[in-house]
Amino acid sequence: MTSTSTSPPAITARELNRATLARQLLLRREPLGVADALQAQQPASPYLALWNRLDGFDAAELDAAFADRTLVKATLLRITLHTVHRDDYRTVREAMQPTLYASRLGYRFAAAGLTPADAAELEPELLEFAASSRSNGDLAGWLAARVGADKKDGAWWGLRSYAPLVHVPTGGPWSFEYSPSYVAAPEGRFTGEPGPVEAALRTLVLRYLAGFGPASVADIAQFAMVQRARVRAALKDLGDTLEVIAGPGGTTLYDARGGPRPPADTAAPPRFLPMWDSVLLAYDDRSRVIPPEYRKLVTRVNGDVLPTLLVDGYVAGVWRPVAGGIEATAFHDLPDATWDALAEEARALLAFLADRDPSVYSRYAHWWTKLPAGQARVLPG
Fold it and tell me: Fewer beta carbons within 10 angstroms: which end of the chain, N or C?
């Protein structure tokens, strides 16, 4: 009697790249609404992320979604600022709760002589105070009256991520200024009970795979900054709702069934991705989009992730607005046809920026002096 086993389907590195681009709407712009989960470290980035992905994107729609809180901006995935749909906030926050509570009070909170028990005691009253919009100064002053002026900065550093607070739109070209205001999330406090937390993580894993899959355990853990053991448990519980795939180098990948996996030769148009675009940060192994030799060029030593050129589906350089157009710096030689396609994208990008912030990301210009010489061109509007 013989036994047979079925090997999992396999995917090549280039097919993995095309699957990622398809999930991220980077193969073609789609006629969808604005309610996607987006990295929001820099106020302009959600707008530029959607401009790259949505056909006919109107920035005023995103303004309105922030204003009526259809979309909320808060510290969530990877303990960084993200924009999520209000209906997804509870799930994402609950899945992240153990990580947020374990790590984000941070060294400044501890250096102020405060403990997690102090945070737990302060949180309910803090959320009550933040039932209406409060500025950084308001909240720091509130804390000074309770923990002392010498401890307020460390206390606020920890509590602004520990407590379920969301950012309030404050105006400006991109809905939020650099000095944020906060309001308590309508869900209030989260208990962190194991049942809801792990159920939320399973939902988050499914949502992640739909938007970023196929992916490994390490990729999923990196995306949400949760322990790999929790990810493995979630994948086990999801069972046959997932597909197991043999990835490049024998890596085991997981995917939601039915997710698009275009052929390796699918055309990928050039794109001008924003700073901190999620597709560059959502994986432990980022070689599916960033050639390893370029990773340190676009992800700087302090964590800044520069606005990047995507060429044939991979990071090929960086961009920034300058006098006369968009300066595109390629890290390797590009053919004339690619430069022509980039120039067409640059004209559209400049038109989009014109009424908002023509010099977007200018505060990060110092990084360009630290980049190696590349093939740079100013692409006019």
Answer: N
